[in-house]
Amino acid sequence: MSKLKCSIVEDLMPLYIEDLLNEETKKDIELHLDECEDCKEVYDELKKGVNLEYEKNMDLKEDEYEELKTDTLNSIKNYLNKIKYILIIFSIAVSVGISILGHGFLSTIPWIIIIPFVLGLLYKENMLIIATALIFNILFNIILQKPDYIIFTSIYILLCTGAGLFLADSIKNLKTN
Ligand SMILES: [Zn+2]
After folding, report:
1. Which residues are placed with Cβ below 5 angstroms of ligand 1, an ion?
2. Alpha helices (H) in 102-149, listed in sequence order
3. How many angstroms is it from 33 CA to the middle of ligand 1?
4. Which single residue of 15, 86, 113, 137 could bond 164 by disulfide (Cβ 3.0 to 4.6 Å)?
């Protein structure tokens, strides 16, 4: 029979499970557990509890990790969305600017078709693209002090932007069909 009493073994059990005892005490407890059914039962129960607690902690950590992952993905998405709007507004401003300020009818037409076309392929923001084009058209005409041209250039820009977006939509539909 081992030299330890059951009550002492039970007192030491938590330390034994956490592996905080010195080698000699550990061996004594192991010896006792081999021989004593009661203490072995207590040990099994405690050990199960500790493992459950551990698993619960791991689950919690996984939840936190998932949460962190979703948060990160969301902030990346938000960032890309912001870039999207900046990109749309900037490139439409440039293409409207080139179309209105540029010299030579033929050399300027492609910009206000091609840029909406590319933006239309990249994003589903047709209304925003058209609205931005019209707003910049009005702005540029006001800056250039050519208010008489606003209606004419609005129609022209609407047709060109629409043509570019229509082309982009046609290609997108071809891909999905
Ligand atoms: Zn015992």
Report:
1. 6, 36, 39
2. 105-122, 126-143
3. 7
4. 113
